[in-house]
Amino acid sequence: MKESIIANFEQEMNTTRRFFDVISDEFFAYQPHEKSMDATKLMNHIANIPAIVPAISGASSLDFSQVPPSEPAKTKEAIIELFETNVTQAKEALSQLPEAQLTAPWSLKNGETTYINNAPKQDVIRNLIISHTIHHRAQLGVYLRMNNLKVPACYVASADESLI
Predict the structure, then answer these.
(1) Shortest CA distance to 67 belongs to which of 52, 88, 47?
(2) Is the pLDDT assigned to residue 118 strictly greater than 80?
(3) What are the residues facing 108 on neighbouring strands?
(4) 128-155 average pLDDT score
(5) What is the 3-class SS of the chain, one letter each residue?
(6) CATH number of 2-146
């Protein structure tokens, strides 16, 4: 199971990296709608999702209210550096996670609010990390398209690129 999770994680992070490769510094100011995240917030969110992996592998819970806010990356170079650092740390944490710990319970809170309550770590990694990244990467793809930027292929092809 662990090898499968790591392979899936690496595949999705490699694809996500290609989305960051097509942005420009000017793109960070883009916001498609008043209810939508601006591109800076969206890209920082995506880049920080892998940073949760060490908390999943090394503890039984995470309380976001105990995590100090960080200054957002506001340039292409900075967002790629943030993403790469978080992916590297996540891969290290996953490699050190004992297989038996994949079924251990894990919780996510923000103060008194519980988002995930005692879910198996393997489910949290697949849903909160991998699927969550895919979800927001698709959102980023829409932002790219709306700005006439190239949308990288994910699994087979996009209108701009073929992987075959």
Answers:
(1) 52
(2) yes
(3) 62, 116
(4) 97
(5) CHHHHHHHHHHHHHHHHHHHHCCCHHHHHCCCCCCCCCHHHHHHHHHHHHHHHHHHHHCCEEEHHHCCCCCCCCCHHHHHHHHHHHHHHHHHHHHHCCHHHHHCEEEEEECCEEEEEEEEHHHHHHHHHHHHHHHHHHHHHHHHHHCCCCCCCCCCECCCCECC
(6) 1.20.120.450
